[in-house]
Structure formats: structure tokens, C-alpha cells
Design goal:
With 182 residues, the chain is mainly β. The protein has a domain at 2-98. It has strands at 2-3, 10-19, 25-34, 37-47, 53-63, 70-79, 85-92, 100-106, 112-118, 125-133, 140-147, 150-156, 162-169, 172-177. The protein has a 14-stranded antiparallel beta sheet, with no helix packed on it. The relative contact order is 0.07.
């Protein structure tokens, strides 16, 4: 054990990691004390039959900044069969208002099609981002963002250059057109 600078509290750490028969990490539990404050993190992982990551979660238990005890924060990630992050959720923690959730969908080329961000109080999304692509499935054609403030669309040419953006903010439209010399 190693003492901290003040000498009044011990700093310790214990880590236990478990693996499946394919040597994939399935869990890690870390208990530590730093400056007299306990911290526990629990990481869990799930895999497909062929060893690709399917989901992971992190649970963090620590002494609250407030006098009333401990806090629990849970972070969850889920992935599709190609390893794309399709779901993210953050629950709890020091401030309940930090709860959030994000969902994503991808095209057959693993390019982002849509991302929805949800607020802390409901399953009503607060931000949606949508991307569309040219037939190659990789070159972005249009991006649209919708949130509580307004709507923004950006169009791109096949060469990837921005051609136009249209913004609706507080009931007012702004259009920007980009032209390029050949």
C-alpha cells in the first residue's frame, strides 16, 4: 500500500478481470480508495458468437460530492454486427439531469444515416441528425439537423463540397449558397 502526500489516508486499488474461453474480457471490477474516498467501477462486455463486441456497460459507484451518500452512474453502449455504436445511454451520476440517450442507424456502407439524442426526462428526442448519400453510399449528399431551436439542411455536391445550407431558426430562414470556380 502506498500513502498519499498527507499521510492521513491510504490509497489502494484492486482490479479483478475475467475473460471468456475465447480470451474476450467479460468483466472488470475495480475498487479503489483515494484520499479516503471509495470508488468502484464495474465494466461488463457481451460478444457475438464470432467474438464481435455486442454491448458494454460501465457502472461507477462513488462518494457523492454532497453529504448524503454515494452516487451510481451507469453508461451503456450497444453495437451492430459491424461494430458501429448504435445506442448510448448515461443514467444517474451526480446530477440526475445528466441522464441522456442516443440512438444511431447506419447504411449498408456503415455510414451514419440518423442520430437521435434524447433528453433526461422523457423518450422525446431533442436533436435529430439525418444524413443521406449519393448512390455510392459513402459520399454525403445532404445533412439535416432538427433540434428545439430550429432546422438546418446542408446539401453537398458529388465532390464533397458544400453547395447550400438552409437554416430555420426562431421562425426565420437563412439561405447560404456556395459557388466554386472550375
Amino acid at each position: 500500500m502506498k500513502s498519499n502526500k498527507s499521510g492521513s489516508c491510504q490509497n489502494t486499488k484492486t482490479i479483478v478481470t475475467t475473460y471468456d474461453k475465447y480470451d474476450n474480457q467479460v468483466s472488470k471490477v475495480e475498487n479503489s480508495i483515494s484520499n479516503g474516498k471509495p470508488l468502484t467501477t464495474i465494466d461488463k462486455y457481451q460478444y457475438t458468437a464470432d467474438g464481435k463486441i455486442l454491448s458494454d456497460s460501465i457502472s461507477i459507484i462513488k462518494q457523492s460530492k454532497w453529504e448524503w451518500g454515494k452516487t451510481l452512474e451507469v453508461i451503456i453502449h450497444k453495437y451492430d454486427e459491424h461494430g458501429n455504436l448504435i445506442y448510448y445511454e448515461n443514467i444517474g451520476g451526480e446530477y440526475i439531469s445528466n441522464n441522456s440517450k442516443t440512438t444511431r442507424t447506419f447504411n449498408e456502407k456503415n455510414m451514419l444515416l440518423e442520430e437521435r439524442k434524447y433528453n433526461s426526462c422523457s423518450d422525446v428526442y431533442k436533436i435529430v441528425e439525418k444524413d443521406s448519400y449519393y448512390p455510392d453510399g459513402v459520399t454525403i449528399k445532404e445533412q439535416e439537423t432538427v433540434d428545439w431551436e430550429g432546422d438546418k439542411k446542408v446539401k453537398y455536391g458529388k465532390d464533397g463540397r458544400r453547395l447550400e445550407s438552409l437554416i430555420l431558426l426562431n421562425g426565420r430562414y437563412t439561405q447560404e449558397i456556395d459557388e466554386y470556380e472550375e
